[in-house]
Design goal:
single chain; mainly beta
Amino acid sequence: QVQLVESGGGSVQAGGSLRLSCVVSAFTNCMGWFRQAPGKEREGVAAVWTRGSIYRYYGKSVKGRFTISQGNAKNTLYLQMNSLKPEDTAMYFCAARPSEDDTCGLDRARYVYWGQGTQVAVSS
């Protein structure tokens, strides 16, 4: 069982930045960030796959503004969010796939472990 705990959410004005953190109890090859706004489906924001090299995946709406990274010990996942927009307002979740799932990406159905979420609010 992998446990994930997010932090770093908050309120910020449009154009500002936030960095989310997620402490993971056990490293898995594929970890990601998702978000869910009220009344909308949960969508993939970014994912990172460690398989020898490191591969990163980004949703279209955040590409170029958000950056996913891991701490040196690989037990912390970060999401650096720059140039924030009001439409980025959502609950952000950290998630991980089991290591035996030798794939990665933004398909939320394949993520088994989820954190409780951290709220991000961007005002105009």
